[in-house]
Amino acid sequence: MPNAGDAERLENQVANAVASRVSAQELIPVLAELLDQAAPGSELAVDMHLQLAELRVETEPWKAALHAKSVLKDRDDEHAWAVLGLAHSLLKSYKSARRAYTEALRLAPDCPSYSHNLGHLLDVMFGEPALAIEHLRRAHRLAPAEPEIAASLAHALLRSGYRPEALSTLAAAIDNPVRAEKLLNEWEAAPARPSAAAPLALNPEQS
């Protein structure tokens, strides 16, 4: 059985570390130790799995996926589904990523990042830009000031044959019609698909 005093000490360490804004690499070992102290399936254990999933997803996506799945065994959690979607995208398990993002949206239909991630995935990895537009329009409506979302919407519009709307959407987002035209030209000429886990480049030189 875990020692209650040790668990309380570790919880205090976590709180202090978060308040001090320590790096993920410094925080992960403390969270992992606290997870070891927690009873399996307890609220504390689920919370630790979720935090570890979020901290590890970009550098250790397979570990993050395991943490997220542990959360989902005990809690139908939008954040766990979203982290699982990103982890699967980074691992190139795109069908699993699509399902995970769909589940995240089921729980939080007004979250622009979930709509964006699913729409971007549908466009660039599944070749379904027309289906992606629905999600990307919602994301853009919910977060109109986010240029990455506008770029993803413009990309899907372009691939669906709506070039004038794609141009106006992108030009408004980056406040540069000439640059927007260059980006659309480069997207039209590029045969390779961008990564579903990364935003579309907004500088022509990076496209």
Structural notes for this entry:
With 207 residues, the chain is mostly helical. The chain has two domains: 1-108, Alpha Horseshoe (Serine Threonine Protein Phosphatase 5, Tetratricopeptide repeat), CATH 1.25.40.10; 109-207, Serine Threonine Protein Phosphatase 5, Tetratricopeptide repeat (Alpha Horseshoe). Helix content is 72%, strand content 0%. It contains eleven helices and no strands. The chain has helices at 4-19, 24-37, 43-56, 61-74, 78-90, 94-107, 112-124, 129-142, 147-159, 163-174, 177-189. The radius of gyration is 20 Å and the shape is elongated. The model has no long low-confidence stretch (mean pLDDT 87).
Main attributes?
207 residues; mainly alpha; Serine Threonine Protein Phosphatase 5, Tetratricopeptide repeat; 2 domains; elongated
Strand and helix layout:
Blueprint: H1 4-19, H2 24-37, H3 43-56, H4 61-74, H5 78-90, H6 94-107, H7 112-124, H8 129-142, H9 147-159, H10 163-174, H11 177-189
Helix pairs in contact: 1-2, 2-3, 3-4, 4-5, 5-6, 6-7, 7-8, 7-9, 8-9, 9-10, 10-11
Number of strands: 0
Q: Please mark out the parts with pLDDT under 50 across 5 or more consecutive residues, or reply none.
A: none
- Write down the CATH class of the largest domain: Mainly Alpha
Tally of separate helices: 11
Q: Tell me the strand percentage band.
A: under 5%
Task: Describe this structure in a few short sentences.
The chain is an all-alpha fold. It has 11 helices and no strands.
